[in-house]
Amino acid sequence: MFRVKNIKKYYGNQQVLGDVSFHVSEGICYGLVGPNGAGKSTLMKIIASIIHEYHGEIQFSPSHMTIGYVPQEIALEETVTARDNLLFFGKLYGLRGQALRNRMNEVLSEIGLTDRGKEKVKTFSGGMKRRLNIGCAIMHQPDLIIMDEPTVGIDPQSRHYIFQMIERFKQENHTIIYASHYMEEIEQLCDETAFMDRGKVVENDRIDHLLEKHAVPSIFVKGRNCLPEHMAQDHAISETDGGYLITTNQPLDMMKKVIEAGNENDREIERLELVKPRLADIFFSLTGSKLRD
Amino acid sequence: MNAVIHMEVKKNLQDRGLLFWALLLPIIFTVLFISIFTAGTGGEEKRQVILSIVPGYTVMFLFFIMISMTESFIKDRNTGIVSRIASTPLSPYAYLLGKWVPYMYIVFIQIVVLLSFGKLIYDVPLKQPLWLLLISLFLTFTVTGLGLALSVIVKTNNMGIAFTQVIALGGAMLGGLWVPVDVMPETLQTISHLLPQYWAHQALQEAMGGTMEAMGLLQPLLILFCFGLGGFIIALISYPRFLQRAKG
């Protein structure tokens, strides 16, 4: 689909992207995760042809691939209607006449605004504006949709609706680049992801591979006097949520040991569960959790 | 480009503030200043004062369109619309033209309304209408061209307003829109010849009075055209920096 090769970008003397490379296959959702200032937005602007001055290369296949860009800001004309906005961006993407009007009606339906199409955008809620923000980028049914934090500041229902839209885009074989601060969004929506920090890709792979590669399984146990002392000495254990998190490569064996120890010594176990590895833990382990103010 | 023109026209039609700035305020000022400066005068003297004030205040108030232009561009920049448009196949050249043309309509309508007001209320002569039309078109191009440059260069709305005041009021003062150039010191007279306001005012006055010759028209038209073109070129050159400052 496209390949980003050795992209470097400077603002004055400051390097904002340093030798960024990755490959995105057709029809997948590719996540970009990183703290503020990691270079995600700059990278997306380069891919969307908004920034032209950079070092490196982006190879699109096919070369005439169409791109729809959903900016982080709500980039809409608020004094006109939702229909006017869709028609405006549709025209900029080359649609005309009946085809343009048909596509506008399709998109209004897709973003759940058919009944509100004739209303001015300034009367919309945050979630409606976010959906229209996406709608304007898909008027020309682009091959690649670039979304820069499309769910910032919206209610759970609108977020859920946008997730469903993205799932539909994937089913329709659109390729998606999705930047977000929300790790659970990336885990839920994306097939592959790149962790970015200080202008560099520190890790990128399929999400299941990343979890396999980096995440160490653990179990959570809670209860009065629930852990034998020797276990606390032999394993990496941390206290959390009023219980203990035991990191181990053999989580099922460990659970068995905890239960056996509990039965033998009349210990009281309230909760015992397998903890699923999280992308956020891998991200913090790779980039650190210190503030980046 | 047509889509940008259409959208900009639609937004401006809803802007009641523009109606105030572009038409009501100039009319109020023209009436006020004519009543002040013609008090106690009569005959030819009064006619000369009116013949200077009507085109002079028309030219001065045209430049205030720069405020609306800068506001529109800065809004596009800060809402992320500029970035979004830059990701479409529309070229920067077409974007700038698309934003420019609607303001040309507004300024041209402004000239027509203000001169027609002068004709209806004060019976100012419009003896060479064809020349007046040509001067109006070139003046429209100049004012909006300079407005375009300013819109792409300034960083904030306040900067846009400040520069517009300097250009409109400074240009009016030095360009002979308030006080005849003949009574100014020699240095200021030289400076006034460097300003588009001077050439526009002189040309309008002559064409209104019917004393403009075809060859005499070329010089002001060429000068006005150069200012407008210069504005467009500056805007085009400054566009990448404008885009770099854009959100989104």
Structure description:
The complex is a heterodimer of chains A (293) and B (248). With 293 residues, chain A is α/β, with parallel strands linked by helices. Chain A folds into two domains: 2-205, 3-Layer(aba) Sandwich (Rossmann fold); 216-276, Alpha-Beta Plaits (2-Layer Sandwich), CATH 3.30.70. Helix content of chain A is 36%, strand content 27%. Chain A has helices spanning 40-47, 82-92, 97-110, 126-137, 156-171, 183-189, 207-214, 229-234, 251-265, 279-287; strands spanning 2-11, 14-24, 29-33, 55-60, 67-70, 144-148, 175-180, 192-197, 200-206, 218-222, 236-240, 243-247, 271-275. In chain A, the strands form three sheets. Chain A has a six-stranded mixed beta sheet, sandwiched between helices. Chain A has a four-stranded antiparallel beta sheet with strand order 11-12-10-13. In chain A, helix 5 (156-171) links the parallel strand 6 (144-148) and strand 7. Chain A is elongated. By secondary structure, chain B is mainly α. Chain B has one domain. Chain B has helices at residues 2-13, 16-37, 43-62, 65-79, 81-86, 92-122, 129-153, 157-174, 186-192, 196-209, 214-244. In chain B, helix 2 runs parallel beside helix 6 and helix 7 (129-153) packs antiparallel against helix 10. The chains are: A alpha/beta (293), B mainly alpha (248). Chains A and B meet through strand 5 and helix 2 of A and helix 1, helix 5 and helix 11 of B.
Task: Sum this structure up briefly.
Chain A is an alpha/beta fold. Chain A is built from 10 helices and 13 strands.
3D shape of chain A? elongated
Reported for the largest beta sheet of chain A, the result is:
6 strands, mixed
Could you spell the SSE succession of chain A in H and E letters?
Answer: EEEHEEHHHEHEHEEHEHEEHEH
Structural class by helix and strand composition of chain A: alpha/beta
Labels describing this entry:
heterodimer, A: 293 residues, alpha/beta, Rossmann fold, Alpha-Beta Plaits, 2 domains, 4-stranded antiparallel sheet, 10 helices, B: 248 residues, mainly alpha, 81% helix, 0% strand
